[in-house]
## 1
Amino acid sequence: MSHLRFGPNEINSSYLIDNADYVACHNPAFLKMYKHKMVENIREGGNFVVNTTAGTLEEIEKTLDARTKRILARKGAKLHVIDAEAIAREVGLGSRINMVMQTVFFGLSNVLPMDRAIALLKEQIEKTYRRKGKEVVDMNWRAVDATMAAIKTIPVPAEWADIEVEREVIDWARPDFVRNFMDRVNTQTANELPVSAMPYGGRYPHGTSQYEKRGISTRAPVWDPKACSQCNTCAFMCPHAVIRPYLVDEESYAASPYTDLPKAKGKKLKGHRFMIAPSPLDCTGCGLCAEACPDDALTMAPLADIREEAVARYDWASSLPLKDDLLDKFTVKGSQFQQPLLEYSGACPGCAESPLVTLVTQLYGKRMVIANASGYVLYIFLYLFTQLQRRVGRYRRCRTVHHG
């Protein structure tokens, strides 16, 4: 979350904004994560912008909680939506929406005359990206030019001001630490907690990342079992240990709702079915799994279209007993049937560091003590990775991209 202030005079003091003229939600997942906290500090008549595929009142009101609607109506805020990712993909920028959302800001905030703002944006684009070539500069220019026409202003219904606020549903199955502390940190409301609520010594219990299920990506991988060669390269490459292979015995397969699972390849896997099941709500949408797959068995699909089915598939697969003793773990395929002891990290999408750490925990995790959490750890693990390659063996099309 960023707080940005403009003014005619030099600003020397640092403080957060509690009366914002302009609030923007760049990821629709934040509407579920932060809910009304996103707009509670918007000023009377302020602008609220959402990057979303929803383009009508009927569609957008399904994504807003009741408190958010009531705040927008009572403060007379203006609601705007734009599908920034669609613009970025159309001009060739993939999921990079920064120029689109910057243009929206200047277009709605009136910080500068729009003609002047666009001229300055394009000047900065050329200065920043000219080393990458004219094609990259032109793509960003096209994104700027296409933005203003794509903004839709949604009228805020007056009846939202008196809308009944639903009571918060508490999931008592979640551990106390997760409910009472971690969830507050993740929703940026931990400032309201007393010191006594902090974990003693700043210690976090192990395995808490599995409860976050942030759903921050707008796209997630879909597996085609007919095209898959069962090499496990996708799981090997995943920076967040989100995409996993599973071995399903015939008894579990017969009782499962899934009838399309292929037989597992290899003599040691006889009597099992093979399954790739990504966790869509932990995926960051980097697409490395689909890029690394030598069989084109993975495609990135809109999360909104596959969410319910993909979550159910992952929940079923993750409930299966772990079968980690059938293959040599010092191979690419065998290593990915091991339980990763660092999973669902908060690393950047496409991080080149986290898959190395994950792999080391899969190979040696039960005998590891990690004592270094600084940036230098990257170089340590790159060295370890080159040594592990000799034992793990040849891997196909394993490429890493760091978008940080």
## 2
Amino acid sequence: MRKFLFSIIISLILPILALGADVTHDGVDTQIGVPSATTQVKLTLGEAFFAGDAGYVKVSDGKAYKTDAGDSDKFGLIGLADTAGEINDSIAFNTSGIDDNQSGLTINEVYYLDDAPVTLEVYAGEASSSFFGYGTGSSYEKIAQSIQEAAALSVAGVKAKLGVELGSPTDDVIVRIETDNSGEPSGVLVHANATAAIDGSTLTGSPVDYLFSFPATVSLSASTKYWVVLTRDTNDTENYYEVYRSTSSAYANGLTSLLMSGTWTNNSNFDLSVTLKASAGTISTTPGANLVVVGRAIATDKILIGDLATDSNRTTGEEYLSPEQHGGIYGTVYRQYFTTALPAGLTSGSIVTGMIDYSTQFKYTGTDRGVGHGNATAYGSSDNHIYFMLSGATGSGNISLAATGYVLQKGWVDYTR
């Protein structure tokens, strides 16, 4: 189940404060239903930031880095950068209240952390596979993919589709971006940060995309050949890995090469399933792989961070993210408000998979009565009753309301879809 987090991870803030981060409050224009102050925390940067970029704190060094909702180590949002800064600069991050460093937002939309955008996709399929890390001084020691693009690239990591070819290897799988030496990998990193490793024991016999995240963003020059090299800690002829690939040329600007008996041998008949990822720190109306709410847009350049329940612009018949997510146990929970009738989007189309909570108010013989939690509540007899429930409870369905002797006054319903 995808993890759901609201915008501030308190468990991260406390260690930061212990490291001496400064917390301040900046006044902003007061709006109805909107906090009148923005809370900030000052952090040292582990990489360059633009104003408005989303950041998380890396536990190992206590510095701020750009978020990536697609990386389980990088989606712990601490706040949005209040100003731009370079590596090792100390800048303020807006952790609650209003961030006014955005642009092009859609008012009243919920914004989430975004996955790191793709810089270059060589191939993303799994038509076939090739093994590597087999032995030293023998066949299939390493495998590599060359790349060359007309534009410069900013790379924060590499995603590769990997599996176990034989046995149960437990050492690290390593990705490196190396310079070119006469048409083959040079063995020299393009930058000290251009390498990352994952625990090989997490790999299985099935193809899975694994993200190798670099310590910091690496720049690749335009019109220059580089190599994405896959290797491991210790080669083993009885326990080794595989990388998935195409069965024909899928990338016009590169090819694959195998290190066999100490010699690189190029093969232009297929390409490896690797994707270069850019630095992230971006927000979007589309949730990333790990669902993290940043806040709601209150202007085209302003986002209200955190508590969505403070929004004063909600209307009936519109779908919102519920302020009560129940710790993510049900997945994403949505909410709609209504007055004298249920919204049409809930009574037709069969979009609702679960009815989580609701609150309603009815009028009965001149007296208001509340009908609360649960999937159905009834009063009286067959000619004097209410029911409020989900049809198709085991799958997608519609919410039904019948009120004989009662008139619906107002309410809301929380649901999954």
